[in-house]
């Protein structure tokens, strides 16, 4: 079965340090939720790596857990970079300088053309992986990845299902993952 693809918005400070997503506190919390929902099974080595992350704040510990579960879950971001000031609006500008065919990213501001390669990379990843489930964490993702995919292939991957969480709620995410694990939501 193709993996579950988890898509974040952009790198945080720890993600930027290592050059991969979800290796900060959100990644640790996400592993616990995926384990609670029985999507993955955290073995003692995984638990040790997660504990070491919280002791040391070294992202390499969470990266080891991601690599150990790469057949079940895959991570990426819309932007594999850390926006200045951790502000996605810094990637935007007036509509006149934005990418044609893409929705506004923040308010009425559009993504600047210089970031189009990030959307191309995301579309390529989704098409290559053809995941069973795409879980977008954040507020701005649907319009961006959908437009990026349409520009690459004309359609979204047929076997994938998109779940967009605009407001991250731990209880809602756990409920969603439990439903998926129990077959209540079957893509």
CATH topology: the name is Uracil-DNA Glycosylase, subunit E
**Low-pLDDT runs:** 164-168
Estimate the helix proportion, in percent. 40-55%
Q: Order of strands side by side in the largest beta sheet?
A: 2-1-5-6
Could you tell me the radius of gyration in angstroms? 17 Å
Distance between the termini: 12 Å
By secondary-structure content and strand pairing, the structural class works out as: alpha/beta
Number of DSSP helices?
7
Our count of domains comes out at: 1
Level-1 CATH class name: Alpha Beta
Shape: globular
Strand/helix succession: EHHHHEEEHEHEH
Largest sheet: 4 strands, parallel
> What's the CATH architecture?
3-Layer(aba) Sandwich
Compact overview of the structure:
With 187 residues, the chain is of the alpha/beta class. Helices cover 42% and strands 14% of the residues.
Could you explain the architecture of this structure?
With 187 residues, this protein is an alpha/beta fold. The protein has a single domain, classed as Uracil-DNA Glycosylase, subunit E. The protein contains seven helices and six strands; from the N terminus they run βααααβββαβαβα. The strands form two sheets. The chain has a four-stranded parallel beta sheet with strand order 2-1-5-6. A two-stranded antiparallel sheet has the order 3-4. It starts with a strand and ends in a 6-residue tail after the last helix. About 3% of the residues have low confidence.
